[in-house]
Amino acid sequence: MLSSFSLVWVVYAMLLPLSGIPGFVVCWYFTFLAMYWAAVLLLRGRLPARDALMGALVTTGAAAVVIPLGLVIGFVIYKGVALISPHFFVATTQFCGELSAASCGGVGHAIVGTLEQVGIAVLFAVPLAILCAVFLSEIGGPLRRPVFLFVDAMSGVPSIVAGLFIYAVWVIGLNRGFNGLGASLALAILMLPTVTRTSFEVLRLVPSGLREGALALGASEWRTTVSVVLPTARSGLITAVVLGIARAVGETAPLLFTAFGASVMNANPLNGPQEALPAFVYEYIRFNPGTGPYQRAWSAALTLTFLVLLLFTSARVIGSLMSVEHRQRRAVRRERRAVARAAAQAGAT
After folding, report:
1. Range of the domain at 78
2. Are 254 and 178 in contact (CB under 8 A)?
3. Which of the chain's ends, N or C, has fewer CB atoms near its CB within 10 Å?
4. 339-348 confidence digits (pLDDT tens)
């Protein structure tokens, strides 16, 4: 890397009439790949040189994903960490205005709204999505192709369309008004295709030999699905749920037409407008930079980021605790402890 940097600096900046950091970085990268491949070729041979070149390309791809993500998270932390405190997580903005200090109020009402709306959406969407995935994977029939096409089509539906649909049917049509339940219905619509498609792909990975073995032992198809297929794919299904939550937790457009937003604490998703963190950020980030609402918007964005991280980590931990491998390791540890206790009792006798 140092050699390619020096060579490109001499040629690009000193000998050629070129300038600009992007062009320099591109030339440096391709020169590095060429020099790296040539060095490994001379030292180890053609096959290791190809492996080293592909390893460098794969590492570059990983860095191209991780570095921007790290920059985004770092920037959000830099802008929002100033107001983070226990008071910020429990207070509301009921008595705060545009001229109020940044330390006035908090996002307690928005956190409660987000958790309730996403939680209800999960209760609605996950059972239906898994049942649909089981139908596509295990049952099929003449309806399999239309259902599969419908799921793929729903994957591309813009979030604002789901919000408008619930607004027309729930808020206006049924005259239910703005509330958190309407927001949950809109988020459930967005979660359904993601969880369904991911669950379907996970169920397809279950070895067919497990199904055939269960059927050979006399189990019915529904018993095979419930007792063999779903437990085997449990960790993958949890991943599908996590992806569905990721699809819904940061949406703002559906909330504007359903939950509407509020500056007071409303823990009842069935009655009255309710705030959520994405809508809170959208509402307050429009104020002038440097004002109290603008700073609270960045702190709310940081809170939403770590809330999503907490949800994902919890889902991963639960999935690992419920996995077949974990249960097997736990059974082996119990057997070892039982053998040790039996040996200790025999020695004492």
Report:
1. 2-83
2. no
3. C
4. 777 777 777 6
CATH number at residue 306: 1.10.3720.10
Q: What angle do CA 182, 249, 247 make, to 5 degrees?
A: 100
189 and 71 share one domain: no
- On whether residue 98 sits in a domain, the answer given is no
For residues 184 and 143, the answer to whether their CB atoms sit within 8 Å is: no
Work out the burial of residue 37: count CB atoms within 10 Å of its CB; fewer than 13 is exposed, 13-18 middle, 19 or more buried.
middle
Residues 287 and 206 in one domain: yes
- Asked whether residue 342 is assigned to any structural domain, the reply reads no
pLDDT at 85 over 60: yes
- pLDDT above 90 (res 51): yes
Query: Using alpha carbons only, what angle is made at residue 253 by residues 250 and 255, rounded to the nearest 5 degrees?
Result: 80
Mark whether 50 and 196 lie in a shared domain.
no
Q: How many helices (H) and strands (E) does the chain have?
A: 16, 0
- CA 121 distance to own-chain centroid: 15
The residues, any chain, with a CB within 8 Å of residue 241's CB and separated by 6 or more, are 122, 126, 195, 315
Tell me the Ramachandran region of residue 49: left when phi exceeds 0, alpha when psi lies from -120 to 50, beta otherwise: alpha
Q: How far apart are CA 252 and CA 284, in angstroms?
A: 13
The Cα 244–Cα 223 span in angstroms is 27
36, 170: one domain: no
Which residues share a beta bridge with 260?
Answer: 274
Averaged pLDDT for residues 155-163: 90
Query: Sorting pLDDT into bands at 50, 70 and 90, what band is 202?
Result: very high
Q: Look at the chain and report how many structural domains it folds into.
A: 2
336 assigned to some structural domain: no
* Any domain includes 97: no
Let me know: does 169 contact 100? Beta carbons within 8 Å.
no
Look at 300 and 316; give whichever has higher pLDDT.
300
Rounded to whole angstroms, the Cα distance separating 22 from 58 reads 21
User: Does residue 277 share a domain with residue 141?
Assistant: yes
How many of the other CB atoms lie within 10 Å of CB of 100?
15
